[in-house]
Design brief:
heterodimer; A: 433 residues; Cytochrome-c3 Hydrogenase, chain B; 14 helices; 14 strands; B: five-stranded mixed β-sheet; 5 strands; 20% strand; globular
Amino acid sequence: MPRAGKSRSVRVEMLARVEGEGGLHVRIRNGEVASVKLDIFEPPRLFEAFLRGRQYSDAPDFTARICGICPVAYQMSAVQAIERAFGIDVPRSVRMLRRLLYCGEWIESHALHVYMLHAPDFLGYESGLAMAKDHPDAVNRGLQLKKIGNAIMTVVGGREIHPINVRAGGFWRMPRREELLPLVDQLEWGREAALQTVHWVAGFDFPDFERDVEFVALRHPDEYAVCEGRVVSSGGIDVDVDEYERVFAEEHVEHSNALHSHVIGRGHYSTGPTARWNLNAERLSPLALDAAREAGLERPCRNPFRSIVVRAVELLWAFDEALRLVAGYEPPVEPWIEPAPRAARGAGASEAPRGILYHRYDFAGDGTIRDARIVPPTAQNLGTMEDDLADFVGRNLSLDDKALTWKCEQAVRNYDPCISCATHFLKLDLRRV
Amino acid sequence: MRVIGVGRTVRGDDGAGPHVARALAAMALDGVVVTECPGEFDALLELWEGASAVIVVDAIRSGAAPGTLVRLDATVTRVPAPAGTSSHGFGLAEAIEFGRTLRRLPPVLVVYGIEAADMRPGAGLSPAVAATLPALVNAVRAEAVSLANPGQPPAARV
């Protein structure tokens, strides 16, 4: 149990994950919000630095260590960037297996967030543990759902945390059909439990809070985009992932160690489940769409608090999709195509549970990495999170500090940030003058 | 019965649990299944599912002198945990409390803790922890054997 002395939060360590201490500093002057600053530490910058000089093949596994909840996302964005740089087109069976692996990650991430991190806020519990006392069946369901997500990752990826089977060009080993079939019973149970999850969260009380923000997601012509797609937005952006850095920029914000993203020439944007729902809902399975409709999910959804419903719908969709992929799986003869490195730049983007994860590498002729750029979804959402909070705090100033802190944490959790998605990570520093 | 060594060897003294697990695994004790676990709360709930008796070994931070050993019966005593940890930090204490709330604790659950000096990323156990580790291994071995062979006189046990 590695904890430092009196700290109430997970300490940020130099080579550790994106989670860290979040500080929220609010200044209120004459009854109005003067400033809101969300203070986050950002490890991906260090990964960009120490990848330089390393072989391309290190990128998927090294970057996976940025996150313990979404390692598959890092592996997928990395291999896509490598394959685009070296001109590799993986076969359909590899794409399907990658998509299945990603379903496993969405399932475990979304189940954990919906049940353990966000639902307690809506039901008035300060922790998942407190909620478990009154809602043991719900919590057990959430844990079982997460377990199935982990099972997919173990079967396809070889290990549930930081899968070992992913490589540029394909997989180290393609499982046989007989190895996937035992998942089917669990997936069918999970699909039913996920449907119950949608019904459960649909009944929560949602603060009446809407914001106008540009939504950004990947879009694929045939499927609900997960592993690949063009970058599109509700503001009219529609570009190949190669163009990402021409459209989106990051700036260093003085109060934070993180970089904030914005659309060049415009402003902050939002990526993640709600963006995907708003931009790609018609590509969800009929079952997921029906459930969303019954849950009263509108399109577009502009209430960040309803992201929990979208996550539940995506959880359901992921089980539906996993069953489809297992049924259609045929392993290829060769598990991977051997990359032929060349001096090139390659960009890759995939939809992590939290939103678009962008990787870009510049490779030397011998395959070493000369430069890397990694932009996680949480970093892209930081600006919007601050804007949401400023708006939200301004409408809730009459709450006492304790209640206000909790509401702010709930508002931050709308984005399922991969930074201490904690029960009480926020240190609210509130100055009213 | 099961022995679970909790922790990560890449984090200094946090590797104490796995070290104990490996020492016990090498002894191949009858009726004792030994595993290691980095410490995620849901993984722990799964690992002790269906077991009649479980001993968990973990490094702790309580302010005592490094190398100090503690033993507690988790079915009656709360394992203290710092509040406000992220989901990435839900660990043994949370596993026990969730297990208690959800009635998913084994009938016997004993926690052995060893006070850590340094759990920052890095190789090796600190001298204080390394010095006490053999005593910890012995204590866990004795109790594991006893739990695996209830009703047998001590002389009959390995």
